[in-house]
Amino acid sequence: MADRDTPPRWDRKMQQRLTRGEAAALGELYDRFSSLVHALAHRVLKDEHAADSVTCEVFAHAWENPDAYDPRQGPLRSWIATLTHRLAVQRLRETETAALAGGGPGSTEELESRVRRASVAARADYIVTAMPAPLRAALDLAYVQRRDYRQAAADLDVTEDEARRRLRLGLQLLATAHDSGPSGAQPEDGGGR
């Protein structure tokens, strides 16, 4: 059995390769996580160009600061997602603050509310994509296809108790999207969640 403190091999190797300055490692990192990064940034910013820009920033940061990721803190995927979230929220806050300063509609409270909603939505998206496939399938059946737990159990070919368990666990994971702390909290660069 693997030691809980031992990070996945790929994550350790990637961090080492980035530290050595291997350009091919950056390409692999981009290929593996660019769709996740862009989707999270777009979910927060709701702007294709801004999401492209944040995507570039995330990978530039990973290239320039490979030691900021500590494999013992969690998976590289989580670190990349946390970094994306932080940079996207920062960009949203800067853009919206500039619009307010320029006489745009709204108030500081409305700005913070928009940032908080975007932050929770992006975190929920990440949680759904990162959760195990059986939980994701159960949630999809229940909330997208509007099946009750009995129908979901039949569709998944599991017991009704198992369907309820999967739905409960999936919902518990999604509930943590609201528990990510204040919208302005900036996670440490090395802390993957």
Automatic annotation (TrEMBL):
Cited InterPro entries: RNA_pol_sigma-70-like (IPR039425), RNA_pol_sigma-70_dom (IPR014284), RNA_pol_sigma70_r2 (IPR007627), RNA_pol_sigma_r2 (IPR013325), RNA_pol_sigma_r3/r4-like (IPR013324), WH-like_DNA-bd_sf (IPR036388)
Which keywords belong to this entry?
Sigma factor, Transcription, Transcription regulation
Task: Report domain RNA polymerase sigma-70 region positions.
Answer: 29-94
User: Pfam families under this entry?
Assistant: Sigma70_r2
Name the protein family: Belongs to the sigma-70 factor family. ECF subfamily.
Q: Which PANTHER family match?
A: RNA POLYMERASE ECF-TYPE SIGMA FACTO, RNA POLYMERASE SIGMA FACTOR SIGZ
Q: Give the protein's recorded name.
A: Sigma-70 family RNA polymerase sigma factor
